[in-house]
Amino acid sequence: MKLKLAVIPGDGIGPEIVREARKALDKTAEKFGHEIEYTELLMGGASIDVHGVPLTDETIQAAKSSDAVLMGSIGGNAATSPWYQLPPDRRPEAGLLKLRKSLGLFANLRPAILYKELRHACPLREEISEKGFDMMIMRELTGGLYFGERRTEEIDGVLTAVDTLVYNENEIRRIAKKAFDIAGKRRGKVCSVDKANVLDSSRLWRKTVEEVAKDYPDIELSHMLVDNCAMQLVKAPSQFDVILTENMFGDILSDEASMVTGSIGMLASASLNDTKFGLYEPSGGSAPDIAGQDIANPIATVLSAAMLLRYSFDLDREADAIEAAVQQVLTEGYRTGDIMSEGCTKVGTAEMGDLIAARI
Ligand code: NAD
């Protein structure tokens, strides 16, 4: 297969971690007989330095004409970087928001996996963490409370603020389909999270998800109220496979789920539109404090590249090979500084990338 990838290394540790993910992609392509054509694009601070803006129209077009985008991360130190002297719409992060919008990315995927080798970093009690967990939080990204009408006004001399939570059935249906498709590639379980005992938008959510479920008889659907889900994530996280939820609930729950894994350098993510196209990036930021020192953990980006193969190209065996290589490196005791523990072998960013690629 020929894969046309746009690559956005970005700022800070971005270029280092993307370089290591490309090693894994190249090795996988070689092993399974694929051809990858990369187009490197500038975004964020790197684009401001060259073009004066964090994202150009040409970059958007180039991203759109690729099959998928692999990204590092963008942004700098807000206190010291000249990028943050610019007006908000010209700062690095504005580029990412504009790109996500231009690409119509409405589904955000964040896997939260507890590797048994990294169990010590999990803040949960041992009897919970020893069961491990491997879940995918699927969050609607373009609707709901963050995009509804809002205003603050004085009513009878009292300041009053209103935010509106709007979803239509089409928005719910398209993300529900994605969630069922993705569950089909995993353990076949979707837990839809809402607040249907209170909110109309949640009642429509639940009804629509149930309708979509009829087309997926092999997938097991359950529903959970969001407050219960917040508790279950710390009480019994091993019960979850795919968690499907709306924008604000997903914002909060995905951060909660990632915190219980304990290590930011391990967290991959993807944002998808209604085709196979997706933007794949680590969940962490550009970590300017450690940039250029060969100490950043590249694993989140390597795992994002595996997601890219799985979800944009249906190359499941290839994605499995990358994930198995990551698992093997951890089993053999190699660690970057952020996940280091006693008795393990500490390696830098480039060496970690080499070790993973060699095991694919
Ligand atoms: P951050 O995630 O960059 O860093 C938080 C802490 O985690 C730091 O101590 C950092 O060294 C560490 N860390 C992050 N990734 C790591 C890795 N791969 N390996 C080892 N350690 C790692 O968050 P921040 O410091 O709040 O933000 C820095 C910049 O990143 C800001 O400009 C912010 O806007 C931007 N940011 C970008 C994205 C994105 O590109 N999607 C996401 C979040 C933050």
Outline the structure in words.
The protein is α/β, with parallel strands linked by helices and 360 residues long. The protein has two domains: 221 residues, 3-Layer(aba) Sandwich (Isopropylmalate Dehydrogenase), CATH 3.40.718; 121 residues, Response regulator (Rossmann fold, 3-Layer(aba) Sandwich). Helices cover 40% and strands 22% of the residues. Strands 2-1-3-12-11-4-5-10-8-9 form a ten-stranded mixed beta sheet, sandwiched between helices. Strands 6-7 form a two-stranded antiparallel sheet. Helix 7 links the parallel strand 8 and strand 9. Helix 6 packs across helix 7, helix 8 runs parallel beside helix 9 and helix 11 crosses helix 12. The longest helix has 19 residues. It binds nicotinamide-adenine-dinucleotide. The site of nicotinamide-adenine-dinucleotide has 22 residues, from helix 4. Nicotinamide-adenine-dinucleotide binds next to helix 4.
What's a concise summary of this model?
The chain folds into two domains: 1-122 and 262-360, Isopropylmalate Dehydrogenase (3-Layer(aba) Sandwich); 140-260, Response regulator (Rossmann fold). It is 40% helix and 22% strand. It has helices at 14-32, 45-51, 57-64, 92-102, 126-129, 169-184, 200-213, 226-235, 247-261, 299-313, 316-331, 349-358, and strands at residues 2-10, 35-40, 68-73, 107-114, 133-140, 150-155, 158-163, 189-194, 220-225, 242-245, 268-272, 278-282, 334-335, 345-346.
